[in-house]
Design goal:
The protein has 258 residues and is α+β, with helices and mostly antiparallel strands. It has two domains: 8-207, tt1808, chain A (Alpha-Beta Complex); 209-258. 28% of the residues lie in helices and 21% in strands. A six-stranded mixed sheet has the order 1-3-5-6-7-8. α5 (129-137) links the parallel β5 (114-118) and β6 (141-145). It is elongated, with a radius of gyration of 27 Å.
Length: 258
């Protein structure tokens, strides 16, 4: 490992006042995302976590980001994952200072737990340079989503960080220490039908977007109202039959029981 790389172990020994100066670093270059699908996919990997996921556990925090620089060394360029998830960390209250604009591992005290790359061409090095880079940074889980199968015959490959290498995980993809998994989902997102990469629960059900959550709540409310209406209709029919029976008894000169 290069000496300028900040490891998770060394972070515990560096006091905050000795954190590297980052004023000279380029934290954003204004370059656009590579295509509309990637932009939507990145948002689909972050927004549901904030709108619907209950989090990694009681009183545990997390941050999810897309297309933000991951700085792990002062004299080396950052990695820029399409999406990342980091547990037990919090965003600074003020995001304007330069040292708060990107994911600096020495500021957050750890590497992200999950990093995801979306392949849009054969030039990104997702399964070569980036795979080696994320391993060096000690990212626990690294996922490559290759919807057009440009790099391999597999649309989704996920690796777990072991002591000496990244080990490919078998499907279904589940991260027990996070409480989330990843899975391919064929469906409609923002009025566009495609195969998307989604966060999923233990049963493989996608973590809903905010819009899906509202729709699901409305569907449950509608179903409850339908059940209530059906019960009321049955009660009304039973009352009508009872009234008809009582009237028939009166016509026969029999007073119906109260």
């Amino acid at each position: 490992m290069a000496t300028d790389v900040v490891s998770n172990d060394s972070l515990q020994a560096i006091p905050a006042e000795l954190y590297p100066v980052v004023d000279h670093l380029v934290t954003e270059d204004g370059a656009p995302v590579d295509n509309i699908f990637s932009e939507k996919q990145q948002r689909l990997l972050t927004e549901p976590l904030y709108s619907s996921w209950t989090g990694p556990g009681e009183q545990r925090s997390f941050v999810a980001m897309s297309n933000v620089g991951l700085f792990f060394a002062v004299r080396r360029p950052p990695l820029v994952p399409d999406a990342l998830l980091s547990l037990d960390v919090e965003l600074p209250a003020d995001l304007q200072p330069k040292r708060h604009r990107s994911y600096f591992v020495w500021e957050y005290g750890k590497a992200p737990d999950v990093v995801i790359e979306v392949v849009s061409n054969r030039e990104g090095g997702e399964d070569t340079e980036k795979l080696a880079g994320y391993f060096q940074v000690a990212v626990r889980y690294y996922a490559i989503f290759d919807p057009d199968r440009l790099l391999s015959q597999e649309a989704l490959r996920v690796y777990r960080h072991d002591a000496i290498e990244y080990c490919k995980m078998d499907e279904p993809i589940w991260f027990p220490d996070i409480g989330l998994g990843l899975g391919l989902w064929q469906g409609r997102y923002e009025d566009h039908d495609n195969t998307w990469l989604r966060w999923v629960d233990a049963e493989g059900v996608p973590v809903p977007t905010g819009r899906e959550g509202v729709k699901s709540q409305q569907q449950r409310a509608d179903a409850q109202q339908q059940r209530a209406d059906a019960q009321q209709q049955r009660a009304d029919r039973e009352r009508q039959r009872a009234d008809q029976l009582a009237e028939q008894l009166r016509q026969l000169g029999v007073e119906p029981p109260m």
